[in-house]
Amino acid sequence: MLYRQTQTKLAQITQELQNVGLWGGCTPSDESMASTAPFACDLMPFEQWLQFIFIPRMQALIDAEHPLPSQIAIAPMAEHLWSEQAALAPLIAVLNELDILLNEPR
């Protein structure tokens, strides 16, 4: 059930990124992908981190039926970056929903 709900939220995040034109076609450099900074914020925009690191890693956990993170806080970063952009409110809302889902006691 949690895997299915998480996969639904990942699909919604993807759709929202596409809706607002933040879904990119070019994969970041290997250097950017290897960043160890939170959200790879030193080498790529947050939306690229979502697309090229977060979503694929979460999908890999789901596909392998590995445990999903139980403490996650992605929405605060989105709010910090995008709170002034009304068009991104639905994306921030879905990220918040994912945070709530994964932080619920299991």
From TrEMBL:
Gene3D superfamilies: YqcC-like. It holds the Pfam family DUF446. InterPro entries: UCP006257 (IPR007384), YqcC-like_dom (IPR023376), YqcC-like_sf (IPR036814). Residues 6-100 form the YqcC-like domain. This is YqcC family protein. It comes from Shewanella cutis.
